[in-house]
Design a protein that fits this description.
The complex is a heterodimer of chains A (176) and B (209). Chain A is of the alpha/beta class. Chain A has five helices and eight strands. Classes of the chains: A alpha/beta (176), B alpha+beta (209).
Chain lengths: 176, 209
């Protein structure tokens, strides 16, 4: 019977059902696991209040290291939902460090008046830290586990309120 | 945004020599052209256009015109000299967006493999590192170079499902030119390529708001 079905029809069906086509689908809110969980490169940077923070200070917590800039549209878009996630999971030991690339206080501080961020914004003025993290573009977020290992990587902005994203984030926070 | 047109372009010519099924699914067919869903949208506010191409496997490519005024002002605000900002702004700049909306595939590409097609001739894109050499020679401040680096479409990208980036690329053509672009990428290591044709460089005009 199968032999009588024209090959073209088989391939047409395969095209529809077999290629994972998602044309026109909504953006997927994914968090991708990083194989082998490499050690997160430590850094020490000042925040907008001139206070120094090191990543190693947060050992024992789950840290989202978010590389961003004020001029980057998807970076700006995800800030409010990031803040909400920070607020919701902070008591579970979840921290966000916003690492700004190449901008100074005069640019960042007025910009952030439009947002009510309560997590630290760190200044990577010379882009020295971002180079060590193998970032390809902005925004990029890494999830660092309680042992200081990179467990997840997120290229591009996300909706941190999205239920699927929240579920994946909770799993990352509760991991190991 | 208003949809101006929707039609087919050439698409998905598989470079690899995989199995028969993979080969047939990956090579240019009418079905693939039809599911490509090329769209041209116009921004009602500034009048710029964007070209959107969706590959059957779920990789989305967008080229959105950046009017020279927009690009000029962006870089002037970030420490560029007028000469430097203008030289880049009038070189046919597009905000480029690639979404990996496949369910399982890892999508990777290198802009060094992409080609601008003009009058039947192909040539490579001027990459971020090459522009940065110009800016160093022109003595732009480090902060301006950092802003340029991260506002460009990353030269090398590797995306898991759901990942995406956006950033600027310059076709290196005068305002108002028409060109095509050959886009090359891999999905789980299998080479793919597509052509987006009849792309128009933004004209150098003042934005009316």
């Amino acid at each position: 019977m199968l032999k009588k079905i024209p090959l073209a029809i088989i391939f047409a069906v395969a095209l529809v059902f077999g290629t994972g086509g998602t044309a026109g689908a909504a953006e997927m809110q994914t968090i991708q696991a990083v194989p082998q969980k490499p050690a997160a490169p430590n850094f020490t940077l000042k925040d907008l209040n001139d206070k120094t923070h090191s990543l190693s200070d947060f050992r024992g917590k789950v840290v989202a290291v978010n590389f961003w800039a004020t001029w980057c549209p998807p970076c700006r878009k995800e800030l409010p939902s990031m803040q909400r996630a920070y607020k919701d999971y902070h008591k579970k030991g979840f921290v966000i460090l916003g690492v700004n690339e190449g901008e100074d206080w005069d640019t960042i501080a007025p910009f952030l008046e439009n947002f009510s961020l309560t997590y630290p914004i760190l200044l990577d003025k010379e882009s020295t830290v971002i180079g060590k993290w193998k970032v390809l573009g902005l925004p990029t977020t890494f999830i660092v586990d309680r042992k200081g290992r990179i467990t997840h990587r997120i290229n591009g902005g996300r909706d941190w309120d999205d239920p699927a994203f929240r579920k994946a984030l909770e799993a990352a926070i509760d991991g190991d | 945004m208003t949809e101006r047109n929707s039609h087919t372009t050439q698409f998905a010519r598989c470079l690899g020599l995989g199995a028969l099924l993979i080969s047939i699914l990956g090579c240019s067919t009418v079905v693939h052209d039809e599911t490509q869903q090329r769209k041209i949208l116009q921004d009602k506010v500034v009048g710029s256009y964007r070209w959107i191409m969706t590959a059957p496997s779920g990789v989305n490519f967008t080229l959105a015109q950046r009017l020279p005024d927009q690009t000029r002002s962006f870089y002037l605000a970030r420490g560029f000299s007028s000469a430097a900002a203008n030289s880049y702004a009038i070189s046919c700049v597009f905000q480029t967006i690639v979404h990996n909306d496949t369910k399982k595939s890892v999508v990777a590409f290198n802009l060094a493999d992409w080609r601008i097609i003009e009058n039947g001739h192909e040539r490579p894109l001027k990459l971020t590192s090459q522009w940065q050499q110009d800016w160093k020679k022109m003595g732009l401040p480090k902060s301006a170079q950092i802003a340029f680096q991260w506002s460009q479409f990353p030269t090398i990208q590797k995306h898991n499902p759901g990942d995406w980036f956006q950033g600027m690329i310059a076709a290196g053509l005068p305002p108002g030119s028409t060109f095509g672009v050959k886009i090359v990428w891999t999905q789980d290591g299998v080479p793919h390529q597509a052509k987006m044709t009849d792309i128009q460089c933004p004209k150098d005009r003042t934005i009316k708001r």
